Amino acid sequence: MLALKLGLSLNTIKPIGSWTPESESSALAWWKKATGVTTEEGKLTDWLDQIGNNHNFRQATEEERPTYTSSGANEGTVTFDPSATNNLEITTQITFAANTAFTVGMRVNVASTGSLFTDNTTTGEFIRIMSTTQLRIKLSNGTSRNFDLSEGVWTDKKTIIVTRTTGGLITVLADGVAVGTQTDTAQLLIDNFGVRRTDLNPYDGSLLDASIFTDTNATLTTNLQNYLKDL
């Protein structure tokens, strides 16, 4: 991307107008902060996909529901307790076939480690924080693709964006700065946020907003980064 080649952070590039994920024709799913949320006794039961493709977050199992903050400075924060295996299922599975492009973005507050977007019914399909400095992506139970921070730790980072081109080039960005690239053209399946098959490696942290797109390009990545960082 041009911004990275010039040594600029994506944080310094502002989107034109009031860009949101639904501004993008390639938007597949958007779990918007503090929008479309249903709770029971302070726990999140449903979080509606604002694109309208029925990729809703849902958790029917009471003890696995994450905590939802409904007011105050942290309004809209969804907090996952790994000791209770908190996670959110996606009502309609997302499938990216081999050699297809995608962009996945999220605003997070990582407390430790754990699974982010995954498939909880298929082995080896996940985006997962392995340690304070390493994020791992695994597609179709193939080779692990590791992305190691050159500085700082994941607990300091607030935005995570993962992109893949049709040629299989995967890029991970933390707070708008590229962590690295790997190549993997395999299929990616997503049906969960918070655990991987089966209910393993639960996420320790919180989520404010997330979105998934069926394309990737520099403009989309820039706009997404600036949208997420301002939440």
Radius of gyration: 16 Å
Number of helices: 2
Helices and strands, in order, run as: HEEEEEEEEEEEEEEEEEH
Largest sheet: 9 strands, antiparallel
Q: Give the uncertain stretches in residue-range form.
A: 1-16
Basic shape: globular
β-sheet strand percentage: 35-45%
Oligomer state of the chains in this structure: single chain
Q: What order do the strands of the largest sheet run in, or round the barrel if closed?
A: 2-3-4-7-16-9-10-11-12
The overall strand count is 17
Terminal Cα span: 24 Å
| Mean pLDDT, all residues | 94
Structural class: mainly beta
Summarize the structure in words.
This protein has helices at 2-5, 218-229, and strands at residues 27-31, 37-40, 43-47, 57-58, 67-68, 78-80, 88-96, 102-110, 114-118, 126-129, 134-138, 145-148, 159-164, 169-174, 177-183, 188-193, 205-213. By secondary structure, the chain is mainly beta. The strands form 2 sheets. It has a 9-stranded antiparallel beta sheet, with no helix packed on it. Strands 1, 5, 6, 8, 13, 14, 15 and 17 form an 8-stranded antiparallel beta sheet that branches. Strand 14 (169-174) and strand 15 (177-183) form a beta hairpin. The chain starts with a helix and ends with a helix. The model is unreliable at 1-16 (pLDDT under 50).
